[in-house]
Structures are given as structure tokens and as C-alpha cells.
Amino acid sequence: RAKDEGGGGHFEYEPALHSNAEERRVLEFSLRSALEKNEFVLHYQPVVDAKTEELVSFEALIRWNSEEHGFVSPAKFIPLAEDTRLIVPIGTWVMQEACREAALNWPENVKVNINVSPEQLVEPDFAGTVVRALSHSGLDPKRLEIEVTESIFMRDANVARKALEQCMALGCSVALDDFGTGYSSLGYLRKLKFTTIKVDRTFVQGAAQNSPESLAIIRAVVAMADSLGMTTTAEGVENEEEAEMIRRLGCNKIQGFHFGRPMPSEDARKIFRNAAAGARKRA
Ligand code: C2E
Ligand code: MG
Ligand code: MG
Ligand code: MG
């Protein structure tokens, strides 16, 4: 082993590598039983119409409260779940849970956005999973938008594309998430008729800081989406200045802390209850 060779660089970085692998192993062990221990919950973040600020959808975002590790960020455990394929059963749970919540507790004009990993899409029966989640919950397929990133085109691109096309044939829509951060190739936009392009928060931030490149990129993405018959959503809008800028650039929908953080299902339901109570009062 590098350690025993007594030479130079190896010695210094090996312990760090080791603890990283160790951390993953420990986390993976807990992740394996997290579903049956009911440690996952979904939070929901509003997506609003850029012009009217009306709520058009909630994006489901998974949260893991682990008995052993406390709260673990999805940025940490989703990649691990993908590497171990645990994302397949976890993703099926997310699909069922989010569809059920939307069908049972939200008005019919509010959609649900669900993130799906490439590993889920290349499972032989991904569309079947969607069909079952829809039929068990009674959710209208038109209310479901599946979010994928460009990484679905990295391998088994045809399998992933066919799975998404099956979902679109059911009436679901598909959003291209985090656009601009991956190996963005415009060729991807030809391969699948996405409903929505989600412009990544890094461009929103850049544009707010007067980066001419970020501004130009958002403008170009909006124009391109328009000509392709796709809509745009700006991610990570944190204040009124950013919202105003995004409106001026012509994005159709906005998401971000300024309009609402991801919240527990109960808080999301309260929004509808309060709106209904307000409407009764006015009547
Ligand atoms: P994403 O799908 O791009 O989700 C947006 C992320 O940005 C969320 O982080 C959200 O909390 C955060 N965000 C939203 N608005 C703002 C803002 O104004 N400012 C800032 N700083 N952040 C904002 P979160 O919940 O930690 O999720 C991270 C990623 O984990 C998601 O990115 C998605 O790729 C993945 N993920 C979450 N839930 C699921 C899931 O159920 N399945 C799969 N496969 N992936 C998931
Ligand atoms: Mg997303
Ligand atoms: Mg995103
Ligand atoms: Mg993002």
C-alpha cells in the first residue's frame, strides 16, 4: 500500500481518500434501510408564473432525516443513491408519494414536478412506474412534469429518450433541469421535445451581478426555447431585483427562495386553504 512505501505524496492524501470512502460506506449502509424506516419526506417548492406570480406547480424535493446521521442533504445522498442504484426504489417512492399528495390535496390547476435520475430512466419499466403512480393516485397525467438533466444523454441515451417519450404519450410533460451546467449540447434539444427548459441558478445569479455573458445566455436560451415551442423556468430567484430582471428577459416561470422555499406538505396545503378562505370571505 502507498502508506508503507514510505515515499512522498501518497502518504499525504491517502487518509483523506480513505475517510471519504469510509463516509460513503457508512452512509450507504444507512441509506439501504432508510426507505423501510420511513426516513424520507418530500418538501415542495412553488413554481410561479413570471407575469402573474400565480402558483403553477410545486417541485417535489426529497429530504432524508437519518436516525444515524441526522439531516443529510440530497446533494450528498442522491449521487450515492445513483451509484448504488438505490435511487430506483427511492425514486419510485418519490413518484408515488408526490402524485398522491398532488391528487389528494392540491387544486387541479396546480402541477407537480418530480426529479428523475438517469438510473431510473434506463430501468426496463420506468413508464410502468409512472403509469402505476398515476393510476393509484388518480392524478391526471397532464399535471405531472418529469425533470431530468442533460446527464440522461450521457449513456443509454436512446433508452432514456424512449422512456420519456412514453411518458409524454401519456400526457406528462418533461423539463430539462439545470440547463447550461452540464455538457450542454444543443443537439439534445433536437432529440427530445422538452416542454420546459429550466435555466440554472448560476445564470440568474450572474445576470443579477451584471455579468453580460449570463444576461446574453439567458436571453439566447429564452429565444431558442421560444422558437422550439418550449417554455422557460428560471431557477433560484432570491430577490425582487432578480425577479424583475427575469421577467424582463422573458422567462415564463420562476422558482426560488423569493417566491417560496421548499416546504413540508402541510405548509403547501395551507397555501390552498388560505386562498380558499380568502375567496369565501370576498364572496
Ligand atoms: P434541483 O432539481 O435543481 O432543485 C433545485 C435545488 O435548488 C433545490 O435544492 C432547492 O432547494 C434549491 N433552491 C431553490 N430555490 C433556490 C434559491 O432561490 N436559492 C438557492 N440557493 N437554492 C435554491 P435541494 O432540495 O437541496 O436539491 C438538490 C438537488 O437534488 C435537486 O436539484 C435535484 O437534482 C436533486 N433531488 C432532489 N430531490 C430529488 C428526488 O426526489 N429525486 C432525484 N432523482 N433527485 C432529487
Ligand atoms: Mg429539479
Ligand atoms: Mg434544477
Ligand atoms: Mg439547479
UniProtKB/TrEMBL annotation:
Residues 24-276 form the EAL domain. Coiled coil: none annotated. This is EAL domain-containing protein. It comes from Qipengyuania vulgaris. The chain holds residues 489 to 771 of 771 of the full protein.
